[in-house]
Write a structure and sequence with these properties.
The complex is a heterodimer of chains A (477) and B (361). Chain A has 477 residues and is an alpha+beta fold. Chain A folds into four domains: 2-87, Uridine Diphospho-n-acetylenolpyruvylglucosamine Reductase, domain 2 (2-Layer Sandwich); 92-209, Uridine Diphospho-n-acetylenolpyruvylglucosamine Reductase, domain 3; 213-323, Alpha-Beta Plaits (2-Layer Sandwich), CATH 3.30.70; 328-435 and 454-467, Alpha-Beta Plaits (2-Layer Sandwich). Chain A contains 17 helices and 19 strands. In chain A, the strands form four sheets. In chain A, strands 12, 13, 14, 15, 16, 17, 18 and 19 form an eight-stranded antiparallel β-sheet that branches. A five-stranded antiparallel β-sheet of chain A has the order 5-6-10-8-9. A four-stranded mixed β-sheet of chain A has the order 1-2-4-3, with helices on one face. In chain A, 58% of the residues are buried. By secondary structure, chain B is α+β, with helices and mostly antiparallel strands. Helix content of chain B is 28%, strand content 27%. Chain B is built from twelve helices and 18 strands. In chain B, the strands form five sheets. In chain B, strands 3-4-8-6-7 form a five-stranded antiparallel β-sheet. In chain B, strands 15-16-14-17-18 form a five-stranded antiparallel β-sheet. In chain B, strands 11-12-10-13 form a four-stranded antiparallel β-sheet. Chain B is globular, with a radius of gyration of 20 Å. The two termini of chain B are 29 Å apart. At the A-B interface, helix 6, strand 9, helix 7, helix 8 and helix 10 of A face strand 7, helix 6, strand 9, helix 7 and helix 8 of B.
């Protein structure tokens, strides 16, 4: 297939030398590596379409990738497959401030959408922590979330229309300019399909008017349980905050080391609650919120003084993942969901697991929607450490399922959790999903080995050599 | 055939060559099959299964009346913000989801699609299939719950649904402005659309005789600040009076019950964007009554013969769904996603057991 690609791409956009491929071997889940046969860097939608059609013709497995920030290994290349790097497809095709929508290509960076919209007083709501680098194409594939999902929803709630090339080369248009639709919600099905249906070429996103007023409250607690209880109180009060986030002591330490966020000393748990909206409304709600927080046993409460202070608070929170790298050479970011009322039980169990394994776990989570992000710290140079960390991560996922939650809130199943899909879903459920997969990709060439367990690729759990390594599908160097 | 249990439902689906599910039948255009198709009456599959207010979620069987759910939620200060339609006429949760109908409140926080979290449905082989999760945030597996929104039952029979709910605002007021023309009302709508203000519903209601157009802006939140917010809204529009109290609630309720549609007339739902509103309005037959909803994202068009709109919608590259009217093909106009939809249909209902509402004949 390489000669065919060489006719389509100039040498600088067709990478096949080992040195050129190295940069593409991993994504945000660095424990896995796989070397593709080649990387192509299309500059136009037509090139993507032609590439996918060639893959179909040659039965060549492919993975489409943006910035490669997936934390579930969703954009890990296929060994000897093709990697389609979409970063050059980064045009904002059209921005319509009156209808509050924007049409972008998949390689546009998440934050750049809001930057393009800012002069019109608009913004793009989904804000994953990696929003400075992650691309909209990746956000679509994994239905990315962020800190504001309870009130504003996930990526899927902000996508109006898609132009897609399916894995067998057919081009389909889904949705339209309207927030409403008739007929089944096809856009809804495509978003979160993890690259298993095809490649989104053009995406129409809904923009929101930037809230007039924010009130960001930081409350420090002597225990995680107290912070969790405060969240329950806020919810019970009938408020609908834009965000409710909790960080535990280890996560706070990391954030402090990295960005000097000046969080209160001696804090066991930090709660961030943010109200947003129309000024008069926020003022009234803020009054109510203060009452709830003051009665919740916080030993220090800080209210953001201005936009810079608010940004500082959020910088600490959003940097927490990468900041943990200062505490440990390696770490796994987990992403599970439990019913909000089970947060306390989940955290207590994670603490017990952490002690039993002798592995430190930092907790950063979207408390408002029960979305946990345990950060599991390990040293990959120690033999067996990765495996034990993964085992602990697996126990946390099992816990989430047991408590009635989900194995992923916003990172997707990808490579990492595909063994857990059949634990969360029954055989008939997975079968229905696989039928849909086959309907869009009869040759199973679009991001194979992700989301579904077994069948398409060997299982994730491993002792010693990863089964995929044994099978020659992935390799580490 | 009246269904009262999961086992009965599975047996009925397995035993008949073609079936169509029906709830209260409030939208007969969407639930009246041709001869030879077995109608499954799901009103016996009713009841809220799980509801914990602190979770902002509930699960209920598909035949549960929306009114029952709304009362339960209201007791706990919560609601379905997308304003389900035909609630008083008895609409069920399953019928509401399958028809894909959201009311005026969909403007602020989104429609049905933004509040459905999980479904369990019976596939063509009679198997129970689950998609989604019973938590407010979930990204595991393909989003089958969203696929069911507006699917008109063509992929399976809904059995159980889980929704996200929100805290209900303390109170509402509505600023109602009467403007001389639709164009001026639209200009007002766009000013509200662009402003950083929290608006629950934003509707346009052109007078039937073309003599003017009403702009309705609904605000919800803490009662203490509503008068000031309404004043600000009135200043932004440049006109308007404030409705509040039971009269205000009743006005929106009547709208959700489609009380404005004359008896015997058809009703068409058309997804729209504010920029296309005037073009559509120009092409509608003069006798058609119309309500533009959700900031110009949705047109409701009432007219004696809804099918007459097909060519108009097609010419404008718009889609339409006949919600009230004679049974038949309810989808009109242009549906670019059909090739994708056909693949889904073939995958999930290979024996064509469920109704085929494919707009392409």
């Amino acid at each position: 297939m390489l000669p065919a690609l060489a006719r389509l791409y100039p040498p600088e956009r067709l990478l096949a030398q080992p040195g050129q491929l190295a940069a593409y071997e991993s994504d945000g889940l660095t424990a896995y590596r796989a070397r593709p046969a080649a990387v192509v860097i299309p500059a136009t939608q037509a090139e993507v379409i032609e590439t996918v059609r060639l893959c179909h013709q040659h039965r060549m497995p492919f993975v489409a990738r943006g910035s490669g920030t997936s934390l579930s290994g969703g954009s890990l290349p296929i060994h000897d497959g093709l990697l389609i790097a979409l970063n050059r497809l980064n045009r904002v095709v059209r921005l319509d401030p009156i209808q509050r929508l924007v049409v972008v290509e998949p390689g546009v960076i998440n934050l750049d959408v809001s930057k393009a919209a800012a002069p019109h007083g608009l913004y793009y709501a989904p804000d994953p922590s990696s929003q400075q680098v992650c691309t909209i194409g990746g956000n679509i594939a994994f239905n990315s979330g962020g800190a504001h999902c309870l009130k504003y929803g996930m990526t899927s709630n902000h996508v109006l229309a898609l132009k897609v090339v399916l894995a067998d080369g057919e081009i389909v248009e889904l949705g339209g300019e309207s927030a409403e639709s008739v007929g089944p919600d096809l856009v809804g099905l495509f978003v979160g399909s993890e690259g298993l249906f095809g490649v989104a070429l053009e995406i129409t996103l809904r923009l929101l008017a930037r809230p007039e007023k924010f009130e960001t409250v930081l409350a420090a607690y002597h225990s995680l349980a107290a912070a969790g209880e405060a969240v329950a109180q806020v919810v019970a009060s009938g408020l609908l905050p834009g965000a409710m986030e909790i960080m535990d002591r280890l996560a706070i330490q990391a954030a402090e080391a990295a960005v000097h966020a000046n969080y209160p000393a001696g804090t066991e748990a930090l709660l961030i609650v943010e109200l947003d909206g129309e000024a008069q409304q926020v003022a009234a709600e803020f009054h109510q919120l203060r009452g709830v927080i003051e009665a919740s046993g916080a030993f220090e409460v800080h209210v953001a003084r201005d936009a810079a202070d608010r940004a500082r608070i959020w910088k600490g929170r959003k940097s927490a993942f990468s900041a943990v790298g200062r505490l440990s050479p390696d770490f796994i970011v987990q992403d599970g969901v439990v019913p909000r009322s089970r947060l306390g039980a989940a955290l207590a169990e994670i603490e017990r697991l952490s002690a039993r394994y002798g592995i430190r776990v930092a907790n950063v989570f979207h408390a408002g929607d029960g979305n946990l992000h345990p950060l599991i710290l390990f040293d990959g140079r120690e033999p067996g450490a990765l495996e034990r960390a993964e085992q602990l991560a697996g126990e946390i996922l099992t816990l989430c399922i047991r408590l009635g939650g989900s194995i992923t809130g916003e990172h997707g199943v990808g490579m990492e959790k595909r063994d857990y899909l059949p634990r969360m879903f029954a055989e008939t459920d997975v079968d229905a999903m696989h039928r849909l997969r086959l309907a869009m990709d009869p040759l199973l060439i679009a991001n194979p080995g992700k989301m579904f367990p077994g069948g398409e690729a060997p299982a994730l759990r491993h002792v010693g050599l990863h089964p995929l390594e044994k099978a020659g599908v992935i390799e580490r160097e | 055939m009246r269904i009262t249990s999961l086992a009965e439902l599975q047996a009925a689906v397995r035993g008949a060559p073609r079936v169509v599910a029906r709830g209260a039948g409030t939208k007969p255009a969407l639930a009246t099959p041709p001869d030879g198709v077995l109608v499954l009456d799901l009103r016996g599959l009713s009841g809220v299964l799980e509801y914990e207010p602190g979770e902002f979620t509930f699960s209920a069987l598909a035949g549960t009346r929306v009114s029952e759910v709304e009362s339960l939620l209201a007791e706990n200060g919560q609601y379905l913000p997308f304003d389900p339609l035909l609630v008083e006429r008895g609409a069920t949760l399953g019928g509401t989801l399958a028809a894909g109908l959201s009311g005026p409140g969909r403007y602020r926080f989104g429609g049905l699609r933004d509040f459905i979290l999980a479904v369990r449905y019976i596939d063509g082989e009679g198997a129970l299939v689950r998609g989604g999760g019973k938590v407010v945030k979930n990204a595991a597996g393909f989003d089958l719950p969203k696929l069911m929104v507006g699917s008109l039952g063509q992929f399976g029979v809904l059995y159980e649904l889980t929704f996200k709910v929100f805290p209900r605002p303390d109170a509402h007021v509505t600023v109602r402005a009467v403007l001389p023309t639709l164009a001026e009302a639209l200009a007002g709508l766009l000013r509200v659309y662009a402003a950083p203000l929290d608006v629950d519903a934003l509707d346009l209601w052109p007078a039937p005789d073309g003599s003017g157009c009403e702009l309705w802006v609904r605000l919800g939140g803490p009662e203490t600040v509503l008068p000031a917010r309404a004043e600000r809204m009135t200043a932004l529009i440049g006109a308007g009076e404030t409705m509040s109290g039971p009269g205000e609630a009743e006005a929106w309720r009547a709208l959700c019950e489609l009380a404005w549609v004359p008896d015997g007339w058809g009703l068409v739902k058309t997804p729209l964007a504010p920029g296309r509103l005037l073009a559509l309005n120009r092409e509608l037959p003069p006798e058609a009554l119309r309500r533009y909803c959700a900031g110009g994202n949705l047109a409701w068009i009432a007219l004696p013969d809804p099918r007459a709109l097909d060519s108009t919608l097609t010419a404008l590259s718009l889609a339409g769904l006949i919600v009230l009217g004679a049974p038949g093909r309810p989808r009109m106009g242009v549906h670019p996603g059909v090739p994708f939809e056909q693949r889904i249909k073939a995958a999930l209902d290979p024996h064509r057991k469920f109704p085929d509402f494919n707009p392409v004949a």
